[in-house]
Design a protein that fits this description.
By secondary structure, the protein is an all-alpha fold. It folds into two domains: 105 residues, Rna Polymerase Sigma Factor, Chain: A (Orthogonal Bundle); 87 residues, Arc Repressor Mutant, subunit A, CATH 1.10.10. Helix 1 crosses helix 2, helix 2 runs antiparallel to helix 3 and helix 7 packs across helix 9.
Amino acid sequence: MTDQDPIEGTTDEELARRARAGSGRSFEELARRYKRRLFVYLRPRVGSDEDAEDLVQETFLKLYRNIGSYDPEFRFSTWLYTSAGRLAIDAFRRGAASRDKRADESAGELPDPASERDRDPRASALWDAARGLGANRFRVLWLRYGEDLSIEEIAAVIGRTRLAVRVLLHRARTDLMKKAGPLTARAGVPAKAADASGARL
C-alpha cells in the first residue's frame, strides 16, 4: 500500500491497518473522521471546550505513537474511545480538567453528534436533552446511538460489565423518554421505538 491509495469509502479498520504500515495519510484521515465526534464524547467529561480539544489532540498523539498495537480484529472506534476515556480519567485525576463543569457548560453549546449532512433540529434537541442526563448516561447513549457500538464494545470502552452497561443504557433511555417524551412524539418517534435497543436518537 502506498500513501496514494484511495481513501474515500475506506473503512476505519483498513485505514488503521494502513497507518500501522506507515501511511501518514491514512492516520490523518482517521483523525479527520473522528476529531469532532471525539470532542462531543469528551466535552461532558471535562471543564471546558479547551480541555476537550486538548484531550482530543492528546488522544490522537497517543494513538499515533501506539498505532502498532492496534489489533485489526477489533473496531478502530472501540480502541479510540477506550484510549480517550483513559486519558480523560488521567486528566481528571491530575486536576487538568476543571472540576466545575456545570458552570462552564452554560457558556457554550455542544455540537450535535449527527454529521453535518444529516443534521436534524429534532435530533439536535433530543441530544441536548440527553446531555442533561449527566456525563455517564450521555456517554453510553452517545457510544450506542451516535457511534453504533455494541454493548460489548461499550463495556470495553468504559471498563464496566455488559450487564452494567445494559442497566446504565436502560436507565438513560428511560430518563431521556421522561425528559423528552413530547419532543420524541413531535419528532415522529414512538416511545416504544425510541426505547428499543436498536433505535437511534
